[in-house]
Amino acid sequence: MLTFAEIVESLTGKYIPEQGPLVTEAVIDSRSAIPGSLFIALSGERTDGHLFIQSAFEKGARMAMVEKEVDPGIAVVDLRAGLPADFVIPVPPFCVRVSDCLSTLQQIARHKREKSSMRVIGITGSVGKSSTKELISEVIAQKYHTFKNPGNYNNEIGLPLTIINSGRGYQRLVLEMGFFYPGEINFLCGIAKPDVGVVTNIGTVHAERAGSRQAIAEGKGELIAALPPAPGGVAILNYDDPLVREMAKKTRARVLFYGLDPQAHIWADHIQGQGLKGIRFRLHYENRSADLAVPMLGRHSVQTILRACAVAFAEGMGWDEIITGLTQSNTQLRMVAVQTRSGALILDDTYNATPESTIAALDLLQELKGQRIAVLGDMLELGQYAEVGHEKVGEAAARAADHLIAVGPLSKTIAATATECGLPSSAVTWVENAAQAADVLRYNLKEGDIVLIKGSHGLRMDRISAALEEV
């Protein structure tokens, strides 16, 4: 939420006494426009937001930010050369013309952040960013008015939109930060100015673009390097991951290590997976410990919980507040459990796949009772780690599954490795695509079967679950 005057000030450096219309939120999709919103007409590869200005106005948008000529019948405030001498705020709806909509969006967000007293918590890593963001938000909301970026708003567009839409009165802002190339997180930090930085782990996803795991670590370490010094700045680092642990050398912020090693500041032991009921474990911090039961799936979820606890402790929260936030949490992995008509249970974890997240999902499958079927697809964008990544998943599949259906050309390595590691060849099936996998399952599912479906989004393995719901 911001006023037109604040928009003008952020772009021109000039304060105008007349506040002008209030913007309820900024949107880049005209279909999301609501009364009072600011529609930002971004020009993309697939379409051009300038084609939908009128549609946004019809939905109630007060203003549209543009970089091109618009319909002569629409009032325009041209701020490309600063504030016009004869400036008068038009009656909404009207357009604000700028040189570049994307950079202007970022500039407005940067200006708002600089004037805000919110503490910002930034999160990055190869696996677990989204679940970490959700759980941190739920836990610290026990004490602070908290806002977070929705969905995958974690890039150069989504992050500034989140800052603009954070509204007044929020005390904490939780921001997931994506990484595709060196310098990207540093750029996002220049907008968000994080006070707390959380790094989950360094995996192999995006290695195709970023290069080695060391290069990925360098990129994600930009978050830690951008933090302010202690006592205000806090780095929350995974002690169990050597590449993350080394990031402590990049910062003057206070460092809090979390992990399963007692050398960490915040650590856990006695971890027990309880299938679909969640996990139990003992939490340790300073000279105190507590036994907890948290409704999150899989033993690997304890790492997510430790990150949330570390942030909460860093932000001055007490044990009772933290435990309440954890035990009442609605946060979950992107896994969805679906019961079929035949009585089989489908675990749909098809949002994306890396070796680390797939092995974690297989660990959960191994905890469950029944005939366990793993449907595993290609894991994309692994670059030089593709072969070894698929081999590791094959090893885990041999331990966790009674049957394996491998989907896609790269998954042949999963199938071959699983067979080498002891899964009978009669229990391993390879298919070319998701449709063929659904056909194999459609005629073989029975009551008590548990099917884990996991693969990179590009394989559209979500269609398997959809096809089986009526089986």
How would you characterize this protein structure?
- There is one protein chain.
- β15 (279-285) and β16 form a beta hairpin.
- The protein is globular, with a radius of gyration of 25 Å.
- The protein has 3 domains: 2-101, Udp-n-acetylmuramoylalanyl-d-glutamate--2,6- Diaminopimelate Ligase, Chain: A, domain 1 (3-Layer(aba) Sandwich), CATH 3.40.1390; 116-327, UDP-N-acetylmuramoyl-L-alanine:D-glutamate ligase (3-Layer(aba) Sandwich); 336-468, Protein-Tyrosine Phosphatase, Chain A (Alpha-Beta Complex), CATH 3.90.190.
- It has 471 residues and is an alpha/beta fold.
- It contains 17 helices and 22 strands.
- The two termini are 47 Å apart.
- The chain has a 9-stranded mixed sheet with strand order 9-10-8-11-12-13-14-15-16, sandwiched between helices. The chain has a 6-stranded mixed sheet with strand order 17-18-22-19-20-21, sandwiched between helices. It has a 5-stranded parallel sheet with strand order 3-4-5-7-6.
Number of strand elements: 22
Question: Uncertain regions: pLDDT < 50 for 5+ in a row?
Answer: none
Radius of gyration, CA atoms, in whole angstroms: 25 Å
Supply the CATH class of the largest domain: Alpha Beta
Through-space gap between termini: 47 Å
CATH superfamily annotation of the largest domain: Mur-like, catalytic domain
Structural class: alpha/beta
- Tally of discrete structural domains: 3
Query: Overall pLDDT, averaged?
Result: 91
Shape: globular
Helix content: 25-40%
Spatial sequence of strands, sheet with the most strands? 9-10-8-11-12-13-14-15-16
CATH architecture of the largest domain: 3-Layer(aba) Sandwich
How many alpha or pi helices? 17
Strand portion: 15-25%
| CATH topology-level name of the largest domain | UDP-N-acetylmuramoyl-L-alanine:D-glutamate ligase
Describe the main β-sheet briefly.
9 strands, mixed
